[in-house]
Amino acid sequence: MQASISISSSxxxxxxxxxxxxxxALSYSTGQLRFCRLRREAFGFCSFNQSCxxxxxxxxxxxxxxxxxxxxxxxxxxxxxxxxDYDLVIIGAGVGGHGAALHAVxxxxxxxxIEGDVIGGTCVxxxxxxxxxxxxxxxxxxxxxxxxxxxxxxxxxxxxxxxxQAVADHANNLASKIxxxxxxxxxxxxxxxxxxVGVFVGKQKVKYGKVGFMDTEITAKNIIIATxxxxxxxxxxxxxxxxVFTSDHALKLxxxxxxxxIVGSGYIGLEFSDVYTALGxxxxxxxxxxxxxxxxxxxxxxxxxRILVNPRKIDHHVGVFAKKIxxxxxxxxxxxELIDAKTKEPKDTLxxxxxxIATGRAPYTKGLGLENVNVVTQRGFVPVSERMEVLxxxxxxxxxxxxxxxxxxxxxxxxxxxxxxxxxxEQVCGRDNVLNHLSVPAACFTHPEISFVGLTEPQAxxxxxxxxxxxxxxxxxxxxxxxxxxxxxxxxxxxxxxxPDTGEILGVHILGLHAADLIHEASxxxxxxxxxxxxxxxxxxxxxLSEVLDELFKSAKVNDDTAVPLPxxxxx
Amino acid sequence: xxxxxKNTNEQFKTDRYWTTNLSPYSVISVIxxxxxxKSWYLVFSATTNSADxxxxxxxxxxxxxxxxxxxxxxxxxxxxxxxxxxxFSSAISTSTTRIQCRPILxxxxxxxxxxxxxxxxxxxxxxxxxxxxxxxxxxxxSEGDRLxxxxxxxxxxxxxxxxxxxxxxxxxxxxxxxPEGDSAPVGAPIGLLAESEDEIAQAKSQANNNxxxxxxxxxxxxxxxxxxxxxxxxxxxxxxxxRKVVATPYAKKLAKQHKVDIASVTGTGDFGRIxxxxxxxxxxxxxxxxxxxxxIPVVVAETAPLSSKPASLPQIPGxxxxxxxxxxxAVSKNMVASLSVPTFRVxxxxxxDALDAFYGKVKPKGVTMTVLLAKAVAMALVQHxxxxxxxxxxxxxxxxxxxxxxxAVAMDGGLLTPVLQDTDKLDIYLLSQRWKxxxxxxxxxxxxxxxxxxxxxxxxxxxxxxxxxxDAILPPGQGAIMAVGASKPTVVADGDGFLxxxxxxxxxxxxxxxIVYGAELAAFLQTFAKIIENxxxxxx
Lengths: 572, 540
What we know:
- The complex is a heterodimer.
- Chain A has 3 domains: 86-230 and 362-429, 3-Layer(bba) Sandwich (FAD/NAD(P)-binding domain); 244-359, FAD/NAD(P)-binding domain (3-Layer(bba) Sandwich), CATH 3.50.50.60; 438-555, 2-Layer Sandwich (Enolase-like, domain 1), CATH 3.30.390.30.
- In chain A, 37% of the residues lie in helices and 22% in strands.
- Chain A has 17 helices and 23 strands.
- In chain A, the strands form 5 sheets. In chain A, strands 1, 2, 3, 4, 5, 6, 17 and 18 form an 8-stranded mixed β-sheet that branches. Chain A has a 5-stranded parallel β-sheet with strand order 8-15-9-10-11.
- The longest helix of chain A has 27 residues, at 37-63.
- Among the domains of chain B are: 120-208, CATH 2.40.50.100; 342-539, Chloramphenicol Acetyltransferase.
- In chain B, the strands form 6 sheets. In chain B, strands 17-24-23-22-18-21 form a 6-stranded mixed β-sheet. A 5-stranded antiparallel β-sheet of chain B has the order 7-9-16-14-11. A 4-stranded antiparallel β-sheet of chain B has the order 1-2-3-4.
- In chain B, a hairpin with a 5-residue loop joins β5 (78-80) and β6.
């Protein structure tokens, strides 16, 4: 509520403000914006459109310089440096590009963003956002189907069912709503949205336009590559979009196969297994590594398998590659030929109704004209320094060119891309900034959710061995949390990896109810460099799930208070 | 710490517990819990983890360092002697005594009670009350290793957690019967423990016998179908000869749970695969009033839920299973739903000479017998609105505002009931035109829902096949259905005793007795017969 009020006031205020007093007006609005940047995405649309669209347009018409592109702006997109059309041009309007653009405007840079497809990129249109809509449905379906759980709560539900098309529409509507919010948040700040594909022509020079008609050239002091990624489909797998498909198609939920094979058991595969099993499918995982969920901390992965895989209608084949996948045709099912991941011997053949390829994502960097700035991609990824500066073929920094998000492959998460973008803008503005990737949380939105930040236990042990420090592990269970027990959702574990001598947090892993929302206390602590001995004095409301972390921090033993003598016996 | 402890006790609802130290770092505890007059004993040991030990710290997370041994329900297996030493039957017993092992004293007195046999079997322990089988995560010790009492030997994964299983005997791990990654039911031998090196060979041969005599439940990795096909080359199992067994993930889970040999189940699912229902049928269990997840059907009219079918009949070899088409599914549902309606039948003969003559006259104008009959029914229904009513909820009559006659039409492999709407209001020529359109649409499968589900009365005619009488099933949502037989020349005696040959047709009406009573139905039929016998009124 507060957010919506502050925004509508800033948007109605700006048009009245005379041009000459721009600096105070700008600082006023940036103050607002910095504070609630994310919320503005959600509310910007309505306040802007309903109350102010006409006066703003009028204002813009009279005041805009001729030749300038696009749209109404409330707070101003700064004026460019001498000799350049823009201070900053961002190629790709996904979450990374969007985050960078907003921060750039806030810092007074004249900014343009080039997008050849839809605003919002993968996350908003074909990734995190629509999948959350489906997971919201699957979570509720699970609750309604879990008779034991309902009974324990004293609830009776006679029957549960769903309308596939309505579920699919929900996901689609959410995507278009968020896309609208994102577009409007950029338009309202006056970011120039240039439609088409962006290609490097030379140093600080980009041309854009529809493929084949790229005739508009612009110059920019700095350029950010934020072109993202596409689903990766290994060789031998024939994707027909109907029976063999990627996450792009799966999110449209065109049908619910009785039996779905999911190739890859990372977050994407796991989230889709949650969706499809809740909607009645049976699932078979095909994983090339020797265990499911290879990206997670092993202990969390094991528990996740116990909670998210074993009790469900899911089986799995590990240590195998899907060598060949043939879509269903001529009355035959989808055929998956499995070979041993190590020996390459044929191992088994699966016959299923559909196969979802969730083997990861490949960078989308082809046709960017990187050769014109002497950059060679590595497996498609744009090589970058820790400051996201693009490196050329010789490993030297290409000045004024940055790459953020999936395209650099450092951490393929929407919010990581956005954080990298903000970090780049800070540098462009002359403030050195290095993003600590170990403070970037990640989450998998299964039921219950999984989240983590920092190092896994094996990573931490390896690092400890290399650098010669000690690590300790602390764990708490959701079973001991009042709120979790009230919800009758006691499954779960929170795990802390820390340095016992300094109290530094190395990693936190949570599996349990609302884990994705709980992780931020830990990620913020890591980002701020907070120590366990300090954070354990922070107060948590009771009873809340956050107390799981409270318990976790409190249970850590930082060296100065470890002098508790070992008692003789352990009472149980 | 406090919270965990409290919680642990709450969860187990401990009635009594005993605890004794094995060493400064480990403790063995027995929890007694009484339920339903039975005592359960949960025996487990807690060992501080090595990190804590190294720092001589108080163990912090009990729930993570506790190692469960087993849960016992028979108090006879557990006794406590005076000096608080705990004796109990361990997960390990002698090969000679098998399961009926004697209580063996734990603590230093073990030796005194130890049994004379030299080779002991290590059994799959029950780690929780719900555990039926366990998976060997890893063998901590390998064959030939010397074991000391209290050492962890193997890590077992139950339905709840991974736990270390310890030995209570000194000895040598002679043979591993169930390798890592495989599962064994609770109580099955998973390894053999020899007392001295001399017995190792003996133990090994025993282990071999074990593995041979006891076919392991095939795990996912090496499931070769046990079809008795003589020459299937083992190298290329890529679909030659008999199809391999394909079972869905949940079907496999169920088969394991109910100990059904999946290879012996006949698959009825798509592509002949074994579905969960097949396994349930093979295991002889009825699906517990299955709460299937289903998307909401779009077309099919609302029907009563299918009553769960009795144990499925054995499949006759060589038979093929063809799933219902959508139309057939809808018919099946409607037919089953009709069983919940109490119906009765009334038959009525009528003379059709006049009708046949009339039909001859209007036939050139495109009027069919179907339309004539429908029109006659509609006219009779107008006078007997009870028969045009329906009973939707078992509590009230629903009088339909219009008379819509549905006519059953056989289609390829199915049955449709196109509806002549407002049959009472339209004349026979218009009706004939409508009917022609409807049949065309039905053939092309283009009928709109209102064109097949808005009927208030159904007409079914098998006369063209020479059927003289039959009985129709009342479709859900309607009050009555009329079954029309063939009109056949019959010797008829009239009131004056004169014999004559007349065409007689038998009409049989099935009606919902909740709303239509015998006398009303008879009266309706009488009206209908009058119309048939004086067909000129049909043109009115």
